[in-house]
Design goal:
There is one protein chain. The protein has 583 residues and is mainly alpha-helical. The chain has 26 helices and 12 strands. It is 45% helix and 5% strand. Helix 2 runs antiparallel to helix 3, helix 12 runs antiparallel to helix 26 and helix 25 packs across helix 26. The chain starts with 14 loop residues before the first helix and ends with a strand.
Length: 583
């Protein structure tokens, strides 16, 4: 490419670029184990999946504000001083997945694959990859992204992406391409000043194809693409006591990233241009249109995976000595069944959230026949053992450990992910005890349950483990690959579990029975809403969100508890278009 390799430093000039470059992100602190669970995060807790506390903010932070309130009755963790759930003004960096989706829209799927394989993986926060607390910009990330922009621009075909009837191209063609390409990338029309700066870079080239590639490279590393703006009208007067409304194009991007994972399409940009998104009806109409797109089902599937604490099944570590059957082919079959089950319950938004606990898997790959064993018959699955998502081999495989069935992992799944109860990570003192006295997986004279019941004998362990081990024991009739069993090391399996600290307390046996119990739990319903706020607002919930969560849960439940009820509750709430004015 016969032109300079422009780096992101070129973009530091100009008001908006300087503002975007000033962002800072908060760090979540994790408390040690206090010997008890800390309430229901779905009402007043922190990050449901991690036991995280509130997100700190700074000038572009994501915490919420409002009038005084209390934390509610389910496991209160203290008085809440504010209670209206308005996210602060901010600029949020796109996740790797979101960036790749935008690149796909701009340059095609091959370019998107290059972006996905080049950018570093990002850790999940509360099960999701889009929460603002961990989407920072390190010098190495910036350099990688800058190099990626150059690579993608170099691979682009100017003839197809920026066709021009004038032989050799023209200034008019170049400017038209720059405007349309940048608008699609930024999710808004670009200003005359932005056109001038972009053309100044493009005109450093000596031929049309190189000029086109320079535009692409510039736009792909612009902060206007890399960040989502939630700042409101910059010329609006400051109103610290009142929330600020997002601009029409900010609302369009908020809605689009939420439901499609990418920038607004032409119809949504047109709605923003005509001020249609200034009314709730206009927003809901566009949301309903987007919900019919395949991308919306993909987004809802991502939400469900985060809610359930699922990661790619093929990435799950398993001991080859203990589980030689866990091959790539088996993992792929488990993933296929899990994804099919999830999509069937989503049903383009019309499915009920409770169906995740009550539905029966019907599309079972042949490779899973040895896993299901006698549970799989000509007429379908044995519903006494196989009801709901908790009985799927894929979930049971992820929610276990590498050498055994993982009562701890499965108990924490229920506490953290399904009931949104905060269970802090073990403190250093407990970790020292664990490291000094590891579970002896080579002991073939006891069952897995018996091995873990030693926690009850040590007060340093039982204080925490008594909250989740009894739940995990209820999964003991399923091994680490989700195979039903009645014996473990030749001894009878005891899969009697006990649910406490919830609104559906009591004994249960096996994940199928637990699923039926959780399907009727109002705490589990509220927990889904808690996770949904995490995902939709791209930040951990905190106690100031309690009133908002209670309101959303009531509306979601009253509307029937469908997936699209979650979506409608969110996009029609005033908090969707408002931000706390911190100016």
């Amino acid at each position: 490419m016969n032109a300079p390799h422009w780096t992101a430093r070129w973009l530091s000039g100009g008001g908006s670029a300087a503002l975007f470059g000033s962002c800072t992100l908060a760090v979540i602190a994790m408390a040690g184990c206090t010997g008890h669970i800390q309430g229901q995060a779905g009402v007043a807790g922190g990050g449901a999946g991690s036991g995280a506390t509130a997100s700190a903010g700074g000038s572009t932070g994501s915490g919420s504000t409002g009038s005084s309130g209390t934390s509610g009755s389910s496991g209160a963790i203290g008085t809440v001083t504010t209670c209206n759930g308005i996210t602060g003004r901010r600029v949020r960096r796109l996740s790797k997945r979101e960036f790749a989706n935008v690149v796909s829209d701009l340059l095609g799927t091959t370019a998107a694959t290059t972006a996905t394989t080049t950018l570093p993986d990002e850790p999940l926060v509360a099960g999701f990859d889009n929460l603002d607390v961990d989407l920072d910009v390190s010098p190495s990330w910036q350099e990688t992204e800058s190099d990626l922009a150059y690579t993608l621009a170099s691979a682009a075909n100017p003839t197809t992406i920026a066709p021009c009837t004038t032989t050799g191209g023209s200034t008019a063609c170049l400017q038209s391409f720059a405007q349309s390409f940048a608008q699609k990338a930024y999710g808004r029309p670009i200003s005359s000043d932005e056109v001038t700066r972009t053309m100044a870079v493009a005109n450093t080239a000596t031929d049309y194809p190189t000029s086109v590639r320079l535009v692409i490279e510039l736009v792909l590393q612009s902060p206007n693409l890399l960040y989502v703006s939630e700042l409101g009208d910059p010329v609006a007067p400051a109103t610290p006591a009142q929330p600020l409304q997002l601009t029409q194009y900010e609302i369009a991007s908020q809605l689009s990233f939420f439901l499609t994972g990418s920038r607004p399409d032409t119809a949504l940009l047109s709605a923003a241009a005509t001020n249609t998104l200034g009314a709730t009806a206009g927003i809901q109409s566009q949301a309903q249109r987007l919900m019919a797109l395949p991308a919306a089902s993909t987004q809802l599937s991502r939400f469900v995976n985060g809610w359930l604490g699922m990661t790619p099944i093929a990435d799950t570590p398993k001991s080859a000595d203990e589980f030689p059957e866990f091959t790539d082919a088996l993992a792929a079959a488990m993933q296929q069944e899990f994804d099919t089950f999830v999509n069937a319950q989503i049903a383009n938004g019309s499915g009920k959230v409770s169906s995740f606990f009550t539905a029966i898997s019907t599309n079972i790959p042949a490779a899973l026949a040895p896993i299901y064993g006698s549970d799989l018959t000509a007429s379908g699955l044995n519903t006494q053992h196989r009801t709901g998502v908790l009985s799927l081999p894929g979930l049971l495989t992820v929610q276990s450990n590498d050498t055994d069935s993982g009562p701890i992992e499965r108990g924490l799944l229920v506490r953290r992910q399904l009931l949104c109860q905060q269970v802090p990570d073990p403190p250093a003192s407990a970790l020292a005890i664990i490291n000094a006295n590891p579970i002896n997986t080579d002991d073939t004279t006891t069952t897995t349950r018996q091995k873990y019941e030693v926690h009850e004998q040590d007060p340093a362990c039982s204080a925490c483990h008594s909250d989740f081990d009894p739940i995990g024991y209820g999964f003991e009739d399923m091994d680490s690959l989700g195979r039903f069993r009645t014996t473990d090391n030749g001894l009878p399996v005891d899969s009697g579990g006990q649910l406490t600290g919830s609104d559906v307390d009591g004994p249960f046996t096996g994940p199928a029975q637990l699923s039926q119990i959780l399907a009727s739990s109002t705490m589990a319903q509220a927990c889904v809403v808690n996770h949904f706020l995490n995902y939709a607002e791209q930040r951990p919930t905190d106690p100031t969100d309690s009133c908002l969560l209670q309101s959303w849960t009531a509306k979601f439940t009253a509307a029937g508890g469908h997936m699209n009820d979650l979506v409608s509750t969110y996009v029609t709430d005033p908090s969707f278009v408002l931000r706390r004015d911190d100016r």
